[in-house]
Specification:
This is VOC family protein. The protein contains two helices and eight strands. With about 140 residues, the protein is α/β, with parallel strands linked by helices.
Length: about 140
């Protein structure tokens, strides 16, 4: 089995972001810091930063992330969106409402010309999201 999973990079706030995503999507969150693996970071003051975090939801979604140490270049996320889609309107609306809290809606979560529901937002951590309710099959 092969899977494709978003891996988000942050600067000093990966733990807060991943805990936020856990509050939106539920599931199990594992977090490892640079301090958990001595020798992986040259700056001991950054040992508390997240080397790897993984959120696995009950329905199988996997979202990963980490902090970028100061010795490495970092650019705010740009040019991509994380997309969440499905057939359960109530669940997707819950995700939308959670993700948009403290963020900025770009396209409201409404009915687009192609049916279903669709919205775009930037969350409070600067990550762009698309939430889509699949259009019902037409007979």
């Amino acid at each position: 089995m092969t899977s494709l999973n978003p891996y988000l990079s942050f600067r000093d706030n990966a733990r807060a972001a991943m805990e936020f995503y856990q509050s939106v999507f539920g599931g199990d969150l594992t977090v490892s810091t640079f301090g958990d693996f001595p020798g992986q970071n040259d700056d001991a003051s950054e040992d508390h930063l997240v080397m790897h975090a993984q959120l696995t939801t009950p329905d199988g979604m996997v979202l990963m992330g980490s902090d970028t140490p100061s010795r490495m270049g970092f650019t705010e996320p740009a040019g991509f969106s994380v997309s969440v889609s499905g057939d359960d309107e109530a669940e997707l609306e819950k995700y939308w409402n959670g993700l948009v809290e403290g963020g900025t809606p770009i396209v409201p979560f409404e009915v687009p010309p192609w049916g279903g529901r669709f919205g775009m937002l930037t969350d409070k951590f600067g990550v762009d999201w698309m939430v889509a309710l699949n259009a019902a099959d037409q007979p």
